[in-house]
Specification:
The complex is a heterodimer of chains A (299) and B (207).
Chain A (H helix, E strand, L loop, with lengths): L9 H8 L5 H12 L2 H20 L7 H16 L1 H29 L1 H4 L8 H33 L13 H10 L11 H12 L3 E3 L6 E7 L9 E7 L2 E9 L16 E7 L2 E7 L10 E3 L7
Helix pairs in contact in A: 4-5, 5-7
Chain B lengths: L1 H9 L10 H23 L5 H14 L10 H21 L8 H13 L6 E2 L4 E2 L6 H9 L4 H11 L5 H8 L3 H26 L7
Antiparallel strand pairs in B: 1-2
Classes of the chains: A alpha+beta (299), B mainly alpha (207).
Chain lengths: 299, 207
């Protein structure tokens, strides 16, 4: 942008504000700004950005404890300097070893062609190549399934209701546990917690204070009874516990299906909702703490 | 040992023995504000910058044998901070847990675009239009919209008042690029803040 009076360019304003002018040039530029209110206003607005950034990011000092911890690590590293060097070379060796294994694997696969040039593969390298073959087969299978699913999805009528397959809640639980037992949504605010159930199940729920040893990790929408099933992930005495909540009309007999696992599925129906608690414990430990709530409309 | 540290710092020399904890601590403390800003600039979040800088410091100590004597130790450290920050960003992108209900985010984004109550600043006039919030909140939002390198350069220049030569050294980019980043990002921030204001001043709003 150029300004009618004088004219002062954006670039000149930037350089002025950046402190890149020498004192004489600066004084001259300030004179020019005095007779060009438009440019002066813009310079003022830009300088407010600087001021805001300085307020937002005050200079940080090393927290004392952090420095102590870092130096403690340093102490270990110092005493282990030679070890560290060795460790590095050890890693390099390990890298070589890995490539050696890879070579060994190749030798096995190329063995038919080059058997006269190579020793018989060792037991471990045979195991490795079999394992690799299995992995390749599994990857191939997964890719095939993915391809079928993509083709199937593309062939579907876009207006069709999304397909949903109800599944045993214990199976969903197992998948979530295998995936690291991480919630999809770390819901920390009581109002939002209630609002989530209100939105998904048309019934606000709140979580009463859990007893010592139990804590709520968050919510997940991993399915189960319907697309709208809301699952709450909890840690109870160090064990993963999930509570699945849905509208009663979405309840499915398949939900309670259990394989020969040590898991327990507890079911409770109340207030037009159905609750399933999947847990390693013989009794339900969490469902009773999920109680009807008034939802805050602002949440 | 303290003499060696003071001498090294006074002469602007790099540590002869980077594993010397005292020498390291002196350099680290001196460089910390800018290392913190680099981490903040890349990850776009102040709260985790401390942890990232600490992680980088531990790595620097472990890998001090890889430091080339004669090079800038702070620049070397800042390179490690940059890498740690980029790793953090990558890790967070792959994170499956959301702090806010992802289903709600879209709704919130839509409603906030038309909700005058959520946008407090008439930045074009340079005045807050609502005393509840201030320009700094808007600035934090706007900062997230500019690139990581540009954000780093801007913070190092404005907050730390570093010269473009110093920024160039820390960020491993030419001085001219650093300057462009600073000037352009400031203009971009200005436009973003004005744009948000434009959204606030909806027809029929008599404030």
């Amino acid at each position: 942008m150029t300004h009618d009076c004088n004219p002062i360019t954006d670039r000149q304003i930037d350089i002025f504000l950046d402190g890149l002018l020498d004192p004489a040039e600066r004084k001259m530029f300030e004179e020019r700004l005095r007779i060009c209110p438009e440019a002066a206003e813009e310079a003022e607005r830009l300088s407010q950005i600087d001021a805001s950034l300085r307020r937002l990011f005050p200079p940080q000092q090393v927290p004392e404890e952090q420095l102590r911890n870092t130096l403690a690590t340093s102490g270990l590293a110092t005493s282990g300097l030679a070890t560290s060097g060795l460790a590095t070379s050890g890693l390099a060796t390990s890298g070589l070893a890995t490539s050696g294994l890879a070579t060994s694997g190749l030798a096995t696969s190329d063995g038919a062609k080059q058997s006269s040039l190579r020793q018989e593969p060792t037991r471990s390298s045979i195991g490795l190549s079999i394992g690799r073959a299995k992995r390749v087969a599994l990857i191939g299978l997964a890719a095939g399934i993915a391809w079928i699913l993509v083709v199937w999805q593309l062939a579907r009528d876009p207006a069709e209701t999304p397909f949903f397959q109800p599944r045993p809640v214990a199976l969903v639980y197992q998948e979530v546990v295998d995936g690291g037992f991480e919630p999809y949504y770390e819901c920390r605010e009581a109002d939002r917690f209630s609002a989530t159930f209100q939105r998904r199940q048309s019934q606000a729920l709140s979580l009463a204070a859990l007893p010592s040893g139990s804590r709520m990790l968050g919510l997940s929408y991993a399915g189960g009874l319907s697309r709208d099933t809301t699952a709450m992930l909890c840690q109870v005495d160090g064990q993963p516990v999930m509570v699945f909540v849905d509208r009663l009309e979405n309840d499915q007999p398949i939900a309670t299906q259990l394989d020969a696992s040590k898991l327990q599925v507890h079911r409770v129906a109340r207030d037009g909702l159905v609750f399933y608690e999947v847990t390693p414990f013989a009794t339900s430990r969490v469902i009773e703490y999920l109680v009807p709530a008034e939802v805050d409309k602002n949440s | 040992m303290t003499d060696r540290r003071d001498e090294a710092l006074a002469n602007g020399q790099e540590p002869l023995h980077a594993m010397d904890p005292e020498v390291f601590a002196a350099h680290y403390c001196k460089a910390y504000p800018r290392l913190h800003l680099i981490a903040t600039g890349i990850i776009g979040d102040r709260t985790h910058a401390n942890d990232i800088v600490q992680e980088a410091a531990v790595i620097a100590l472990k890998k001090s044998d890889q430091f080339n004597a004669g090079a800038s130790y702070v620049a070397w450290l800042s390179g490690i901070v940059r890498n740690c920050s980029l790793n953090y960003v990558k890790k967070m992108r792959g994170r499956r847990t959301a702090a806010t209900d992802p289903d709600l985010l879209a709704q919130t984004a839509e409603s906030s675009a038309t909700s005058p109550d959520r946008l407090p600043v008439s930045y074009a006039a340079g005045e807050p239009i609502d005393s509840r919030l201030d320009v700094d909140d808007e600035m934090l939002h706007a900062l997230n919209a500019i690139g990581a390198d540009a954000r780093c350069c801007l913070l190092l220049r404005v907050v730390q008042n570093l010269s473009y030569a110093e920024i160039s050294d820390l960020m491993k980019i030419p001085e001219g690029t650093a300057m462009s980043h600073v000037h352009r990002s400031k203009r971009q921030l200005q436009r973003l803040l004005e744009k948000r204001t434009t959204n606030v001043e909806v027809p029929g709003d008599n404030r």
